Amino acid sequence: MRTKLAAILNLTEDAERLQPLTEQRPVASLPFGCRYRLIDFPFSSLYNAEVISAALFISGSGHSLYDHIRSGSTWGLDSPIGGGVFTHSHIEWKWEIAKRENIDVTYYDNHRGYVERANTDHVLITGSGILCNVNLDSVIQYHETKGNPITALFKNVTRASLPEETNVLRYVVNSGQAENVTKVESMNEVPMDAPKVAAGMDMVLMDTEFFLEYLDYADENMKEVSAATAVAYALKQDVLISAYEYTGYMKSIEDIQTYYEANMDMLDENNFNSLFYRNEPVVTRTRHGAPTYYGATSNVTNSQLASDCEVYGNVKNSLIFRKSKIAEGATVSDSVLMQGAEIGKDVVLKHVIFDKKVRVEDGVHLEGTPDNPIVIKKNTVITKENVKENVQ
Amino acid sequence: MRTKLAAILNLTEDAERLQPLTEQRPVASLPFGCRYRLIDFPFSSLYNAEVISAALFISGSGHSLYDHIRSGSTWGLDSPIGGGVFTHSHIEWKWEIAKRENIDVTYYDNHRGYVERANTDHVLITGSGILCNVNLDSVIQYHETKGNPITALFKNVTRASLPEETNVLRYVVNSGQAENVTKVESMNEVPMDAPKVAAGMDMVLMDTEFFLEYLDYADENMKEVSAATAVAYALKQDVLISAYEYTGYMKSIEDIQTYYEANMDMLDENNFNSLFYRNEPVVTRTRHGAPTYYGATSNVTNSQLASDCEVYGNVKNSLIFRKSKIAEGATVSDSVLMQGAEIGKDVVLKHVIFDKKVRVEDGVHLEGTPDNPIVIKKNTVITKENVKENVQ
Amino acid sequence: MKTETLAMVLAGGQGSRLGKLTKQIAKPAVPFGGKYRIIDFALSNCANSGIMNVGVVTQYQPQALNDHVGDGKSWGLNRHKGGATILQPYASVDGEKWFKGTAHAIYQNIDFIDRHNPDYVLILSGDHIYKMDYSKMIDFHKETAASLTVGVIPVPWDEASRFGIMNTDLTNRIIEFEEKPKEPKSNLASMGIYVFNWARLRQYLVDNQAKDRTMLDFGHDVIPAYLRNSEKMFAYSFEGYWKDVGTLESLWTANMELIDPTHELNIRDRDWRIYSRNPDTPPQFLTKDADVVNSTITDGCYVAGEVDHSILSYNVRVGKGSVVKDSFIMPNVTIGSNVRVEHAIIGEDAKIYDGAEIIGKEDEIAVLGYEEEIGGRKDED
Amino acid sequence: MKTETLAMVLAGGQGSRLGKLTKQIAKPAVPFGGKYRIIDFALSNCANSGIMNVGVVTQYQPQALNDHVGDGKSWGLNRHKGGATILQPYASVDGEKWFKGTAHAIYQNIDFIDRHNPDYVLILSGDHIYKMDYSKMIDFHKETAASLTVGVIPVPWDEASRFGIMNTDLTNRIIEFEEKPKEPKSNLASMGIYVFNWARLRQYLVDNQAKDRTMLDFGHDVIPAYLRNSEKMFAYSFEGYWKDVGTLESLWTANMELIDPTHELNIRDRDWRIYSRNPDTPPQFLTKDADVVNSTITDGCYVAGEVDHSILSYNVRVGKGSVVKDSFIMPNVTIGSNVRVEHAIIGEDAKIYDGAEIIGKEDEIAVLGYEEEIGGRKDED
Known about the structure:
Chain A is an alpha/beta fold. Chain A folds into two domains: 272 residues, Spore Coat Polysaccharide Biosynthesis Protein SpsA, Chain A; 98 residues, Hexapeptide repeat proteins (UDP N-Acetylglucosamine Acyltransferase, domain 1, 3 Solenoid). Helix content of chain A is 23%, strand content 28%. In chain A, helix 2 links the parallel strand 4 and strand 5. In chain A, helix 4 runs antiparallel to helix 6 and helix 6 crosses helix 7. Chain A starts with a strand and ends in a 10-residue tail after the last strand. In chain A, 55% of the residues are buried. In chain C, the strands form eight sheets. Chain C has a seven-stranded mixed beta sheet with strand order 5-4-1-8-13-10-14, sandwiched between helices. A six-stranded parallel beta sheet of chain C has the order 16-19-22-25-28-31, with no helix packed on it. Chain C is globular and about 65 Å long. Chain C has eight helices and 31 strands. Chain C is of the alpha/beta class. The interface between A and D is medium-sized, with 35 and 35 residues. Strand 14 of chain B pairs antiparallel with strand 18 of chain C, so a sheet runs across the interface.
């Protein structure tokens, strides 16, 4: 009764197309929406359902993640009785070496051990690359009502809302009384003008018994433990897959463009409210810092800001993260500035994405385009002299 | 003022000679004294000095350690303001691959980043293989009084109290007013009958400024960051090294024999009190469990037990960890039984070390010798039939 | 915030029949069973029943209780949503908010309860020893669509006249309540455990406050009012071990019963653990002179004497030549050499010096209070 | 347990001059500066001064304060050794332990203080706005070998007669104390901050309790008694921003002063942070119609109107066409469209409906209480 499900988070999303933002962090650690990281969204779903433990499988060292998650207390994941965040890093690397040098990496044992110890009826597998705010209580209820051993989440979208080249899977969902996933295809094969298509959300809920069967299969066949392979296994075994339709805001963060769009989406009140102002709050690790100050010369419209900023210049259609300073006469528009940006006087920025702690000296102009925003690496100092080389 | 020092724990002790107890755990995770693990001792020193953060460098995956440490809240290492346990696993492996494939493993950056963020006057480097209970406040006071940039800890011991083949270093300490370490040698070269010799405790305290200098040197020369290389660097630079004499219980846990002796040492009240009943308590992660029950047929003398055991048989000169059961008619003597031992009726055990959850069926006899205790692996079930093959 | 069930543990009582054991601390904080305090049973039952929102109402000598309960972490109750909250008397513009009875304590904490906005309020007493799944009682409450469900336990008929007795019809609906009836019509004694529909109870308390302010106690005032108004009240029958450790003898007996690992309370059951704050102490040390049988011993003890059919709580020292029999020794007690302790309860931090004797009888338990000292060297040290 | 310095924050006062702002919550819990509560300054000063053992004495409407302080985690005070402890009135065999004054509150909590066994007790008030390194004051206390050190601040001479004034000799030793003197001999006003040698103060309090029980207040009773007995008392002079926000006007002024990032209090200083409980809210959203200048805004706000020289605390909504000027808006306030708010303090959770106006003057601040509603649609929703 104490905990509803065991949660397996696969934080192994392909980070290549998000470079250089993912140079030192996994996709799960990507800052988003002025004060969040992508991991906050699945974690908040766990928090809101009062789930008290999670197992994380991470591609890299996960340092930026550990630093954010700490004990997990932010999301109620630190109960001394049965709770905890159990992290497994360097999954890809271990796997590669395991294959190359034929070492047993205990990957499946880690999954099995966690799920057995959690001792719950259900197991959730999810990634962190699809931005959404899912009410897990509602998913569990649906799962139990339908009575199938596995439930997969999807959202009906237009094909054009996803990138041409996408990792999102297309679910074929039979309609009518029993909504089941009957087939899975690559979304890449769906024509761009398709008006309605069921996008798989890389998230499945399973009965624990079924999960353990599936895990044995994955172990024998060296398959990654993921929502995709779980669905594939269920289809292979002719097990019925309940299809849960999610109707809130969703965005698959796969490349710079989708990352940029997701941030800009927040400036639309509908999207913002759909993601943040549901009954279930999005919870992140809070930081100490003063309120944001708007000086006499500031002019800020259609923008979102975190706390601890000082604004003396102009900001329009932008998202500004914590501890940023925008000097008098500067104009920032259609941009995403992560934590600690320092924007000098009379600077003009348009269609840019700044990683953390970018400093721009007085008078610099830097403009990207909506389809090709300029991305600046962490800690960069941009001067009039070096501005061109930074815009490769 | 909030925290006194930055603590670097080198949990990379050689585990080979402690096999099979170290098959799935680093030396730092070795269970000891009925309810502790070796890491509890340096952590308790940090706790008692109100240090609020620590960086851990671990050879393997460190899972057994993570599971024990969790958020570090047990030792006050989870303060949201400046606190935390920062773990770096697979150090050896990364290093090896780094050397082989010429990858930068950011090992030194991790040290530098941690120390800079901790923003303290002093840095402590310690291992976990030397069992002791050090009062860091006293060390800091000594360090400041002496005024040298580095203080190394030692204890005067007889050579014979250490194994013939030992990792312990011999410090040459000049006597008189200014006690300094003037030379470091391998203890292996000291004759076994030497009555008094200064044993290095793999623990140094440094001024942060000096630490950063030393770190640059270690980085340039690809040296491990450790108490030993720090002392070597100081000697090389002709920096005076204050020598702090520790006088409490100390034991270097290097092989099965020293591990066994250390446990048996606890049955001597002087040692037990010296390690546990100082002003500074030894703190470990507590577990829920009922008090230990001694049945009508039990007979327990000169032994230590953790809680949640049930004893119906005879126990003498032994240490029994949590959740163990000893049936009627069984006799356990001169032994160390880790958590969850189940000892059947009329079993006779003498000079044995059981890893966790060993079960012995009724009537089995198993006897080692004081110089060669029998070690049984985790989860082993010993029957009359297989008893011989388990005593390899 | 929306909570289905909020538990309110009434832990403000003095428990004066426990004499000097409750002079400095409230009864729910009295040590029990070697490593517990009495309130651990109610709090562990909450956690194990999945009730994670718990208010603990304290008033009398609450320090030990507050330190013990803290934020509820020991019971896994330190949750973001919910958790354990200590509720103590306070002042307001209306004056001092003292708690004058069980129902009045709830009334005075209406603001706290309203913040949780619960459907049901589960009222518990902090001073009973038992293991009970409250979620089943709440399910029963929902099934019967009751306004109030009272936890009852069958008691021997010849003892029924010592209890508050619920007379029920065939559907378990409560039709009469008699406090200590001379001729009981039923043997269903109230356990002091209630599930109320909060909206309804709130209305009763607020309405009464506006009138004569007489609704102070659940048994004495609220249940009779509910009966008068034909509120739907059901009795939920609990079967299992349940003990009100209200007297020294019952406290002693309950402890002695706990020793036996086969006793029905089954304190060793890993599926329904009794959680407590765990002290950090070294393992127990039985020296070569120790002789321990039929007893339970907790971490931090040092035993060089004889212990028979007794409980040593944590950090107890028993010196050479001493005999402890049929006794409950609370934490941090020092027993010197050649001491005899029989049929006794020894309070926390007490010291019994060399050669002293504390000998009670089964029907007249000897008691040494907290921090009391007895025997030779009282004035030294 | 041994603690060098234990801080006791007196947070039990009502602060009745703040009118409806302290009807439901104690003055130290009143919101301040957009994301703080008044007590954050004393608690952050403790943490930044390395004083990790803090008792917070509450009595009047303590719920908001208790929820806010919790276990002190927000200030890094949730330490195993020490930490923050809420101290509230309670009952004992001696009767009800109510706190009748500053010194009496300390007396009633002697057991708590004794458990820490401190050398020094630092007495603080929970309702002042300032940043102060107490460790320097304690160093001064040690250097002078004082029995009591009183924190003082120079006030303008013409205001000195409104304060408790310490007259000192050339060595800063206090030779006289005058409460609101007509003709002040010094301009050193007591800040209500005291460092006491605990053993000595304890003796005074216990001795007096055995006699006439008149030692209720530090200024009124204890300091005069110390003077009579020639206890070594020194004044420790604090220089810096210090404000007792005891009136609506001073609360408003202190908030307005905080807006300017160059103000001497320097709330943005990362080396002496003012910590608080951080709410979890989305970022602030300024819509295309927003016009914000000279103001500070906190997370969770939604601004579609004009904000000038004001503080919006977290989760404030300002609708289109509305103007907020020279005002301090507390958390969770909803301001509709076409509203005018000027020279006002708006209480937590208040609602101002479309078209309403709340207009004060600089010397007569308009106030809307917590959860109050004003304007058109009061009865709907």
